[in-house]
Structures are given as C-alpha cells and as structure tokens.
Amino acid sequence: MKCQNPARNDKKRGPQYSGLPGSARAWHGKLRSRTDNMENLYLGPVLPANEVRTIGREELQRKLGGGALKLVMCRPEREFQTTRISGSIHFETRDEMLAGLKRDDEVVLYCTNADCLASQVVYRFLVEHGYANVRRYAGGLVDWEDAGLPLEGTSVTSPRVH
After folding, report:
1. Which end of the chain is more exposed for a tag (fewer CB within 10 A), N or C?
2. Among 71, 43, 67, CA closest to 57
3. 49-152: CATH topology
C-alpha cells in the first residue's frame, strides 16, 4: 500500500518539499497548516530525564487526598474520556493549559507509562512558561492501574473502593 503523503512516495526527493509537484506541495501545506493550528501539546522537545522532577505513586496518592494538586493527563481527549486517574483534568491546547493553571499551582503531569513522552513535552512547555511547581508521574496510567487505584472514564466498569 502506498503512503498517502506524496512526498514520502518520492524516493528521489525525500523531504525536499520544494522540489515536489504543485499538488504535493499544496497537500503538504494544508497538512502543516492543519497541524500548526492544532497546537499539539504532546509534540515537541523534552528535557533530559535528570532535569525532570518526578513524583512517586504513594506520594501522588497522598497529595490527591489533600485536594490542592492539579493532576493533568497528557494524552488526547479521546483517551482522557476513556480512562484516567480519578480527579484528573485535561487541556486540548497550550492556550487552554496556560489559562487553566496558575504559575504557583502544584501540577503533576502523567500519560500512559514511563516510555510515553507526552508528559515530558508538556513538562518542558510549562517550565519554559514560568511554572516552577511541576512534576511528572512517570509510571502513568499503567502503574496506577496495576496498583489497583481508582480510575474513571467510559471504559471503567466500576470504581474501585479503597
């Protein structure tokens, strides 16, 4: 099956989009415009792992009981609706996130698991915008679920009681 992107099918030109036929340049321009407008929170550079402040499952669980923490799931909306750690919030765009979080809020970011980079991308974004009290829950949704802790969402059959 051929790739839908004409630029990827042209082995001679590869990523040299300026040499593409007009229709391929137009296709690439539309795609770029569409993705730029999405302001994808989950794409971008990350900080080295030793520069990312983290929080463990037990400490996160204790802090969630206090209520002052902002727990942000860094995955697309459809995943947030399906399964998330109880009490999580979600943002669609960078502007939404900056408007919804105060710079002095205690913020914990998470995504699916330790290998998922989405929370690391958002971590860097927030730090670069002056948020100093940000941490990453690296274990993410998988670690939380494996520990049998409360989840919510459309795919959760019944809330667990602890």
Report:
1. N
2. 71
3. Oxidized Rhodanese; domain 1 (3.40.250)
